[in-house]
Amino acid sequence: MLGWVQGQPCSRGAESPAILDLLMANRIHITTAIIYSNGPPHVGHAYEMLATDAFARFQRRKLGAANVTFLTGTDEHGDKNKRAADAIGLHPKAFADKISALFRQGWAGLDISYDIFVRTTDPVHEAFVQKMLARTYESGDIYFKDYEGLYCVGCERFYTEKELLPGNICPVHNRAAEPIKEGNYFLKLEKYRETIRRNIEKNPDFIRPERYRNEALRMLDEPLDDLCISRPKARLDWGIALPFDDKYVTYVWYDALWAYMSELPDTDDASLTAILPVTEHFIGKDILKTHAVYWPAMLMAVGLPTYRHLNVHGFMNFGGARLSKSSGNIEDPVAYQQTVGPDALRFFILREFTYGLDGDFSEERVIDRYNSDLANDLGNLTSRVLSMAARYSQGAITAAPVGSAAGAGGDPLDVALAQTFASIPARVAPLVEELAFNRALEAIWQALDAANKYIVATSPFTLAKDPANGPRVAQILANLVEGLRVVADTLEPFMPVASKKILGLLNVDEKLARAPYGDGIKPGHRVNPTTPLFPRIDKKART
Questions:
Q1: 448 and 316 within one domain
Q2: In this structure, what CATH number is given to the domain that contains residue 124?
Q3: CA–CA separation, 270 vs 37, rounded Å?
Q4: Whole-angstrom Cα distance, residue 68 to residue 113?
Q5: CA distance 132 to 176
């Protein structure tokens, strides 16, 4: 059965169903879409990765790293990848090796904390897909028929005419679908339509946000065409061979979706039956039908349950147009993290975009957010607090913060600030669970704003001119340092690099960082000298 020790998989002996339920109660499996490897990563990919990473980091803090897995990977078979490889004269596997490495490098640069990276060309994945194909075929849910339809290479799927724009234009890729006539294998979808619909209806948050739940239900209003799951090798030999007909390879979606499970440490039915109900899928809205309709049917066809949530985000646009390889307006996320730091892109996406809706990306807006929120607010507060500590007490904290067991009380300004900082974790947690990352960051920035206003109201710079005010200045510093500690810790899922830097400047280890407000920094603690966290960017110098 499934087990995890210090974030790594291990094996256990058989467990009873009751024990397994208990083990899985605090377990979560998180996935991004398995990304096509027909081109390098761009900031549109980074949107999904960064949101999923923030959610995964938050869950590790809540449940413990041993109870969380975060999986991503590259989808390396199919027409689109084969054509991209042919265009530059490479074998598809060599091309996939190159692109997959670029994704790993890009995610390393953005500090993406995945546990498992699946490549659909991995032998263990291919064997797992063939096992699921054989089981589904033996159950009678896969059958052969001749078929004629309109096929979009970009989507790797057949469309009906009513799903396409006038002129048979794909609504996602804005190019004509290709007419194809051939014999293929099909997965029965209509058989499972009502079961899928009932599952969505009885679980209101099964697909989040609600707009995509409603869209999925509309997809299930009418009978479904069965899903083509193969390609003849005579047309496309780059794929996983069908175990029941070696003249065909499997259709890329049937291949890719099993990547969510194929490389877990245990893939027996009992383990998969336990892990699927605690699985959180993060995807873009363009592949809603694939995950809301096809994937549940694939699972049901082999007797497995469905996942907990399908979390659907909107598109990242660039000047009003969708960011995509086909549009030619892609932006390199690695270049942004090298220019403004790894957390600047993270912060912009998570703070600026409402999860589920489309958002617009531009370098100008990234820099504006960086200068106003990171340089002016977070960076300036950190610098002011640590500079005062160095100037007035050689870095020593000589008072207990208000709100702690030993802290003084009474001053309304101190009490209000303590309440603001103490409430941050409880305010942020439900917002992250709801995928409201922008509102979670807004709550943290409200606390930063309160701290900056507190400095103006208490005026420690003026008070420090009179030695008699030393105790009051020490109290103000203690309150601010303790509050900054809570902010830095709460920021970790969203800005792990900045969080680590601030905690380092505060001379705080991980155990102390996680303490509730008032239980952290004590009298006698010493902070380190300040260093610039977010130097302002001159927009004129970049034009």
A1: no
A2: 3.40.50.620
A3: 32
A4: 11
A5: 33
Q: How far is CA 211 from CA 3, 155, 280, 296, in A?
A: 36, 22, 18, 19
Shared domain for 294 and 149, answered yes or no, is yes
Residue of 46, 67, 68, 45 lying closest to 55 (CA atoms): 68
Q: Tell which wins on pLDDT, 59 or 403.
A: 59
Residue 294 is given by DSSP the state: I
Assess contact for 56 and 111: CB atoms under 8 A. Answer: no
CA-wise closest residue to 58 among 390, 364, 514, 519 = 514
Q: What is the CATH number of the domain that holds 471?
A: 1.10.730.10
Compute the half-sphere exposure of residue 307: CA atoms within 13 Å on the CB side of its CA: 26
Q: Can you tell me which residue has the tokens 């905690």?
A: 503
Q: What is the pLDDT of residue 152?
A: 84
Q: pLDDT tens digits, residue range 322-340? A: 555 455 545 555 566 666 6
Contact 300, 195 (CB under 8 A): yes
The pTM of this model reads 0.89
For the record, the structure tokens of 300 come out as 């049901």
As beta bridge partners, residue 31 has 71, 281
Label residue 417 by pLDDT band (50, 70, 90): very high
Mean pLDDT of the chain: 89
Q: What does the DSSP 8-state code read for residue 285?
A: G
- Same domain flag for 344 and 384: no
Which residue has 């797992």 as its token pair? 128
Helix (H, G, I), strand (E, B) or coil at 325: coil
- For residues 473 and 414, membership in a common domain is answered with yes
- The dihedral of CA 480, 482, 488, 490: what is its sign? negative
CA distances for 529 relative to 104, 190, 389, angstroms: 35, 66, 8
Tell me the pLDDT tens digit for each residue of 141-183.
999 998 888 888 777 777 888 789 888 899 887 889 888 888 9
Q: What percent of the chain shows pLDDT beyond 90?
A: 73
Residues 43 and 184 in one domain: yes
Domain that holds residue 61: 2-361
Q: Which range among 59-63, 274-278, 320-324, 449-453 shows the weakest confidence by mean pLDDT?
A: 320-324
In angstroms, what CA-CA distances link 458 with 376, 406, 451, 476, 518? Answer: 19, 21, 10, 8, 20
State both tokens at 377: 């607010």
